[in-house]
Amino acid sequence: MLRELEYLPEGLLGCPAPELEQVLGAPTLIHLPGRRSPPLFVSILMHGNETTGWEAVRRLLARYRPGGGEHELPRALSLFIGNVSAASQGLRRLPGQPDYNRVWPGGDDTISAEAHLMQQVVDVMAERGIFASVDVHNNTGLNPHYACINSLDSPFLHLAALFGRTVVYFTRPTGVQSLAMAQLAPAVTLECGKPDQPFGMQHVMEYLEACLQLSRHPDHPLTTREMDLFHTVATVKVPEAVSFGFDSPDSDISLAGDLELLNFRELSRGTLLGRVRSGLGVGLSVVDDQGADVSGRYLEAEAGELRLRLPVMPSMLTRDCRVIRQDCLCYLMERYGDHLS
């Protein structure tokens, strides 16, 4: 059930993420007043182990009247705190739960309790109106900070560029928060490195502060001098029946131990990714934006070596095998500079 409040519960800002379930009891949407409206919509903890968003928000709100500070918020804020039950255990999601960032309107799941909850959030915010939407995430692998968008319209690009030069445009997977909220206002997903890095919290806090201060969205075109824009072209997954590991010769696929160092590097054809057991082909599943299997286009296995067939740039490579099973091994990207001035 969605809990909806018009105030910050007492003591909430003093709680680290694992204690939020004790105070809130359920996913909670909190509406706070500010000088301008409509509100900035911010979602955090779609994954319970990605805590940077909450750490940034609790410190930001402490500066303003809703959190005990002296000043009014520059703009109204609607804060959605997501998977508090998974956060209580430090997990991305609990066993049996769907991924909270795959059940928003527009995705394949339309019947689960979590999908109905996200539909309710969207309906509430559609009625209230929103200025912009920000969904805050962490990575488990070594990645730079970057912003993701689902539209190439100038307000989306400017909202992303406010976070940094590196921007990723994607249309899959569906069912994500930013795709749903992009129907209402400019929307962005922030990827803020690992959750234990103080710089990530500071970066997000400064970004949210800047968004609250905005009076309008710029609409002039951006140039390649201002942004490095990439397009996600495929998702790489490990099939359930295939065993894998890192530097693991007994597994079906033995991935290179330093694979996550390849994130956001433009790799050449022939780059070695690991080794694959004979008879498995490439062993991995690669699916493009249209849902087609393009494994043979991007990967090849020869003499047991798994290599790239095309130059690409990966993102979200991680050594966390649980996250790989729950989500994916990585995304493959290409430069998209032609869509900038």
Fraction of residues in H or I helices: 10-25%
> What's the order of the H and E elements?
EHEEHEHHEEHEHEHEEEEEHEEEHE
Mean pLDDT: 96
Shape: globular
**Spans of at least 5 consecutive residues with low confidence:** none
Gyration radius, rounded? 20 Å
Supply the CATH architecture of the largest domain.
3-Layer(aba) Sandwich
CATH-level-4 superfamily name of the largest domain: Zn peptidases
Structural class: alpha/beta
- How would a crystallographer describe the biggest sheet? 12 strands, mixed
Total number of domains = 2
Strand content: 15-25%
Give a brief outline of the structure:
This protein is α/β, with parallel strands linked by helices. The chain has helices at residues 20-24, 52-61, 84-87, 113-128, 154-161, 177-181, 198-213, 295-298, 321-326, and strands spanning 3-5, 28-32, 36-44, 75-81, 132-137, 146-149, 166-169, 187-191, 228-237, 244-246, 253-255, 272-276, 285-288, 299-302, 305-308, 313-315, 330-335. It has two domains: 3-222, Zn peptidases (Aminopeptidase), CATH 3.40.630.10; 233-334, no CATH class.
Would you write up a description of this structure?
The protein is 22% helix and 25% strand. It has helices at 20-24, 52-61, 84-87, 113-128, 154-161, 177-181, 198-213, 295-298, 321-326, and strands spanning 3-5, 28-32, 36-44, 75-81, 132-137, 146-149, 166-169, 187-191, 228-237, 244-246, 253-255, 272-276, 285-288, 299-302, 305-308, 313-315, 330-335. Strands 1, 2, 3, 4, 5, 6, 7, 8, 9, 13, 16 and 17 form a 12-stranded mixed β-sheet that branches. Helix 1 (20-24) links the parallel strand 1 and strand 2 (28-32). The chain is globular, with a radius of gyration of 20 Å.
